[in-house]
Amino acid sequence: MLQRIDLRGVSVSRSVLADKLPRAAFNIEHALDVVRPLIEDVRERGGAALRDSAEKFDGVRPAALRVPAEELERAATQLDPQLRKALEVSIAHNRAGHRAQLPEEKLTEVMPGGFVRQRWIPVKRVGLYVPGGLAVYPSSVIMNAVAAQVAGVEGIALASPAQAEFAGLPHPTILAACHLLGITEVYAVGGASAVGMFAYGAAGEPGTKDPEVLCDPVDVVTGPGNIFVAAAKRLVRGVVGIDAEAGTTEIAVLADATANPEHVAADLLSQAEHDPAAASVLITDSTEFAERVDVALERRADATKHSERVHTALTGPQSGTVLVDDMDAGVAVANAYGAEHLEIQTEKAPHHADLIHNAGAIFVGPYNPVPLGDYMAGSNHVLPTGGTAVFNSGLNVHAFIKSVQSVEYSREAMEKVYPLLKAVALDEDLPAHAEALAARLDTE
Ligand SMILES: NC(=O)c1ccc[n+]([C@@H]2O[C@H](COP(=O)([O-])OP(=O)(O)OC[C@H]3O[C@@H](n4cnc5c(N)ncnc54)[C@H](O)[C@@H]3O)[C@@H](O)[C@H]2O)c1
Ligand SMILES: N[C@H](CO)Cc1c[nH]c[nH+]1
Ligand SMILES: [Zn+2]
């Protein structure tokens, strides 16, 4: 079922691997051309463009782009009790996980009387994206919102696609999760249009009940989504801050012959059900094990609810089994691939996990399948895709806070270093710098 890429006997240098590893044919570069005009349209026509996009891509023209407060409350009231409990546990676990990321303010005495204070300041207003095309993602409401709230962000807006089945509102579980988290500014807007609305703001559509200003611009846009969402985030980066490009889901499993092929197949399939473009990659040094995973995958893919989507994902060029000589080569492949999620199912799983430096999140050992992290491990499931884990992190509080240093020197401390400061200023041919220092010391 999975294509085979045989790297046995092949040098595992980074450049060789970059060419040989499975990747999607329609990548983010292609999607940029699709989303650019959508974002421009939102800038020019605001609410009218947002409704046109919803009609085109989500099959419904929302009456209210801003979700009325009573709909949020109603959705929470009607939430199934077990699901409510699950969302509450997920919120609690994620709060604990994200609090651990908070850096502390520090005052450092660099020299006698010369202090530098390290401050961490949350941005004021953020736009959180929650996907809603092929599946329902209340878990992504939690992942986005908890990180922002723990970071101390005051203004939180959230967007998720309009649903034809729910009269143009986002899915009720999305609305209920917002209510549980105290988020009141919610939009029925999907895809690149939502990202554009957050980055530039949007005017209301004349002749509707929209206010004149439908949505104010935000400082940071975060959240997962399909390739069009990831491309839109790349386009607005610089106008606003973004987290990683958290696009189409990927899973890689590094497994040796000691792993359970049924578990590995189930995990590969679990992420393939997100999207026909999802990537499932097995990295192993055992052909027998690869065969057994393939057999299990065939059976499971036929039986699962989203069988067609899963088949497309597993047989696409972005998925495959990579055969390697040994686990050292497997680790090199995993690092070159930089998976969004990397499971380590080997005899020495903790040892191999320590050798990984490129992955959005690592799931170590047999009892850590990706869906645990998707919902309530306490880690964040909004993770970098497309190999960007080489330089990007999963969503965390740092996406919402800025590091600001404040310089706090006494006159004596500044005077002490003045001759050295002057020497550098004059060497840089910036004498006014030296003069600004001298003005304080009556040495002009
Ligand atoms: N990396 C992560 O952290 C992470 C987490 C959760 C989900 N995901 C991924 O999020 C995605 C969710 O995708 P989805 O489709 O279900 O929901 P989505 O909300 O991301 O996408 C739906 C929106 O895509 C836009 N769209 C659809 N077709 C388009 C086209 N041809 N041109 C331009 N725009 C178009 C529309 O605006 C639509 O509202 C999946 O790919 C899933 O794997 C990633
Ligand atoms: N696996 C997804 C990240 O790529 C997150 C998710 C949400 N719901 C289920 N799974
Ligand atoms: Zn998932």
Automatic annotation (TrEMBL):
Pathway: Amino-acid biosynthesis; L-histidine biosynthesis; L-histidine from 5-phospho-alpha-D-ribose 1-diphosphate: step 9/9. GO terms for cellular component: cytosol. Binds 1 zinc ion per subunit. It catalyses: L-histidinol + 2 NAD(+) + H2O = L-histidine + 2 NADH + 3 H(+). Keywords: Amino-acid biosynthesis, Histidine biosynthesis, Metal-binding, NAD, Oxidoreductase, Zinc. The active site is at 340 (proton acceptor), 341 (proton acceptor). Its cofactor is Zn(2+). It is an enzyme of class 1 (oxidoreductase). Zn(2+) binds at residues 271, 274, 374, 433. Its EC number is 1.1.1.23. InterPro entries: Ald_DH/histidinol_DH, Histidinol_DH_CS, Histidinol_DH_monofunct, Hstdl_DH. One of its GO terms (molecular function) is histidinol dehydrogenase activity. The keyword Transmembrane helix does not apply. It holds the Pfam family Histidinol_dh. Substrate binds at residues 249, 271, 274, 341, 374, 428, 433. One of its GO terms (biological process) is L-histidine biosynthetic process. Belongs to the histidinol dehydrogenase family. Catalyzes the sequential NAD-dependent oxidations of L-histidinol to L-histidinaldehyde and then to L-histidine. This is Histidinol dehydrogenase. It comes from Ancrocorticia populi. The lineage of its organism: Bacteria, Bacillati, Actinomycetota, Actinomycetes, Actinomycetales.
